Here is the input.
Amino acid sequence: MQYNLKNLLYFFTIFSCFSLSAMNIQVTDLSGRTVSVPLEPQKIILGESRFIPAIAIVEPEITSRITAMLADFRKYDADGYQKYLTQYPHLKNIPEVGGNDASSFSIEKVIALKPDLAIFGLGGHGPGSKSARVIAQLEAADIAVVFIDFRRKPMQNTLPSIRLLGQIFNNTASAEIFIDAYQAEMDKVTQTLATINTPPPSVFLHSRLGLSESCCDSMSHGMLGEMVTTAGGNNIAQDLLPGTHGIINYEYLLTHQPDIYIGTAIGSKAFFEQGGNRIFLGAASNKENAQQTLASAITSYKLHYLKAVQQGNAYGIWHHFYNSPFNVVAVQQMAKWFYPQAFKDLDPELTLKRLYAQFQPIEYSGQYWVELKHNSAKDLL
Here is the structure.
């Protein structure tokens, strides 16, 4: 009788564990689709590997659940990737099923790996909400597909994306704690802006400075362009570019001078050591090399002819805030640049350090924004 009871308990435990692992929940993703997904999925495909820090907010051991991913984290944010690789060495062994864009995504490789969930962005470097064929093929293979978004409409979709991830990974508590912290930091900006009656400064956001020889790529609707507006600036690209990004001619900038210039930084430690015209910000940067590369890039593109540069209103910011749940920090820093007196007591660096300490499995390091050290065009000639 005792033996039978032990066996009964054993089989009950096995059945309970199996039932939990096989349990599905209904969620609504950021594309508005209602999807049945496995609770606490174990084999995950990431349409963009730069989603790892976001998912880590609700699942610090997310790297152990990734079956395959695209290469964007390793290629585009090499220094941030290295921080995660140091903490999770097995990251380098995760198969890559694509390079840097949706066209490189290998549906055959993904299906062969038999994942139970694919996490994509609404739009970006991997398959998006318009990738109907990919979605249909994955769902036909019994692979659930959900969409999150920190890129297309970051100010609107960041918190719903974190809440969705909290549901999927059965950790709604951590998701809500992050949401409360994020909202409290955003309120510091919006509540102060509500008391300011002066016209917003005009802002030129120079995207991916140093990537091409021509000038000047900018972000308009969505991505960092949306953060400029939220921080109280008038993003000049919004009236010129109908999509998320595009080109603003150098001659236009000279004849329609912005009050503030911000270049986005795509430089890494490797690029800095090789030389070049990219602003170096991120996990491996420091204030000195950030200022050095900002000044060099501005000179290379003859941007020292802009009055914003000559008057000391030229800055650089980490490009990858455009696809990050920590974008509230970029908003805070922009607000300080736009209204230095009103936000003199705001400390975005402290905000970012606290968010890392509470919500990231890696330690904070690096420099994520920079002010031009020189105050006149003569210093750059």
Observations:
- The longest helix spans residues 172-193.
